[in-house]
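Supplementary Note 3. Input sequence used for the single-chain structure prediction.
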Amino acid sequence: MKKNVFVLAFFCCLSLFAQAQVAKYCMNYADFVADKWTPVEKLTEGRTMQACQLKTGDNYIYFRTGDKIADKVLKKEAFAVKYGDQLFVNCRNLRCKDIPLDISSYTQAVPYDNDKICVLAYKACSGPLLLSLGMDVAGIFVKDLATDIALTVGSTALWITGESLSDKVCYLLDGNANEKGKIAVTRMNDEFIGNLLANDADLLAKYNAVSAKHNRQSAANVLPILMEKGLVAMNNTK
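The predicted structure, written as discrete structure tokens, is reproduced below.
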């Protein structure tokens, strides 16, 4: 099978001493669809001049401004954050078949089919994607499953195993919160991909070529399929 390199610039990691990216947030899915974003600095106006920083730990991503009010909004109320040209969705209120996801902080996401979102969710037992603090990650280059992922750090390309994306799965987010504030998402599993590619036998065969179910349904296999289908762009800007 011909191997194609898919560029997915969806992840940016900054150390405590790195220059912060421009950060914007939106409060709900409708604002995302309307491309209605508010600079995070508006939350801290008159209280602090500290720039918003992306922070990471074992299986979580969050944002800190140094201002308690702003940090509370970002943690508990905001729907999504754009950090530079990267998109992160707050998983706190996401539910799949009424079950919370295995992460309650932010996670990476990419625009899907113009006005929807593909959310990449960590599993609770999975190791973090980040290699360490102190790295400015410019992008991730995703090859086929079981190959490597190149993390471009400045002008240096580091290589890690494809297991990082193999430990994630994709969820479709395409609607507003219900009356309880919960947002339904749909797991992109075999059934979902089968329906999606019902009229694309070649691409469906490519998806099914990965025999192990865990690997077949992982983000490492699903994302390149979505890119080939034209549902996920080669960059993470809406």
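DSSP finds eight helices and 16 strands in the chain. Helices lie at 29-33, 41-44, 68-77, 163-166, 190-196, 201-208, 213-216, 219-229.
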